[in-house]
């Protein structure tokens, strides 16, 4: 009896969830590529859009730790079930007017069904979320990526790195960013990232906005 019950439970677990859903979760994983630039399926990992790890059955605009919801989404009473997701993915602007998701919509119903089956499977823990490229840990970079000084003269920034190397950048090609997350740089220890080393542009990442202008000196060589 116990064995039978166990077997039944195992069969239920192992049964392809695709059989129960209208869409095909495997194809949905492909379709998710259209979303991956803005959404992660790892819980707590917010990008331009909120993590969709637990989207199924949740009220719109309520994921913890996502600070960029529009008023429209926060005020919405939509609960993300199959029907609501289908309508949203067909035409986001029609479902919640004034929302901030810059996405035209997926006109093909089968593609939406696949995608929804996939989101449901991931939400239920039946499929693993795709591995996302983790942002680098800027506290753990080499000396050669640490920025010791930045001088500005005319239209040029001169960046001195921790190993003593100096790189000049046309001012329009050097970006300044902040990363206040746990993986961001230490206070007062900005880090250079991007194609700067080989190319003509780069980004300097600080831990907080106040550091930026305090760090840059007016200095002509
Ligand atoms: C260009 C970036 C971008 C793309 C591409 C994108 N989204 Fe979004 N998405 C957002 C943003 C930003 C929000 C928050 C919108 C708001 O607050 O008005 C959002 C919100 C959502 C929500 C509501 C989440 C919640 O917590 O209530 C869902 C569901 C969603 N997106 C699904 C998708 C799916 C599925 C795709 C791919 C078909 C997709 N999105 C493509 C940026 C994007």
Give a verbal description of the structure.
With 221 residues, the protein is α/β, with parallel strands linked by helices. It has two domains: 14-123, Cytochrome c-like domain (Cytochrome Bc1 Complex, Chain D, domain 2); 143-218, OB fold (Dihydrolipoamide Acetyltransferase, E2P). The protein is built from eight helices and seven strands, in the order H-H-H-H-H-H-H-E-E-E-E-E-E-H-E. It has helices at 2-14, 25-31, 33-36, 71-75, 82-90, 92-95, 109-123, 210-215, and strands at 147-153, 156-161, 166-170, 174-178, 191-193, 202-206, 216-218. Strands 3-2-1-7 form a four-stranded mixed β-sheet. A three-stranded mixed β-sheet has the order 4-6-5, with no helix packed on it. Strand 2 and strand 3 form a beta hairpin. Helix 2 (25-31) packs across helix 7 (109-123). The longest helix is centred in the middle third of the chain and has 15 residues, at 109-123. Bound molecules: heme C (HEC). Heme C binds next to helix 3, helix 4 and helix 5. The site of heme C has 27 residues, from helix 3, helix 4 and helix 5.
